[in-house]
From TrEMBL:
Coiled coil: none annotated. This is ParA family protein. Pfam families: VirC1. SUPFAM superfamilies: P-loop containing nucleoside triphosphate hydrolases. It comes from Agrobacterium cavarae. It comes from the Bacteria.
Amino acid sequence: MTVITFANTKGGAGKTTAVLLLATELARTGHRVTVLDADPQLWISHWFEISGSINNLSVISNVTMASLEGHIRENRSNTDCFIIDLPGTKSPLLTMALGISDHVLIPVQGSAMDARGAAEVLDHLAFLDLKMGRKIDHSVVLTRVNAMVSTRALLQVKTLLESRNVRVLNTPIAERAAFRDIFDHGGTIAALDCQKVSNVDKALENVRLFAAELLALLPARVVRSGRDFRFGRRAA
């Protein structure tokens, strides 16, 4: 069982989109995924409601600080990976969720405000390390990146993160119509109509590269059906 938390205290950083993309890709490849929706906006819960049944994927809505650990305890026997979608604000839930995570992913757009929201998450991680000896692996994923343009703001964000020795995934999440439309239509990227939504093939490739890069960072093995797996690979 693995817990991945997506966190940025500034809303609009592309956090829930990144959660959806990772969750659906893990489910597509056969992993049992439970998304814990702690964001009061409930975007991913709404998406799941209009999607109908999706193999290997479930979403639990209205997760709070009081209910978080109970949801994990109750569902750990049927879940390979929990993905926590935190509020895009400062919240008491932040420290608790970070503390039980195997990996924290911090989505950041190319803006100074997003970078400050990311810095608050990094400060919480540093506090957990200093006060509790809990060193939690973490990465930043750049979101809503224009594949054709590297803006000055985006370069400034990269420089700020590098100055703090923060790992930035090599695969950004691009700005694509498919990633917006999925919240309106439900379902998965692969199910979108290529005649109505542009560049679905490129969106799928982006998702697969993003998921593969993140999963390669996870040391935990997942037990499924009596066999040991590391995400995406049979354990040696």
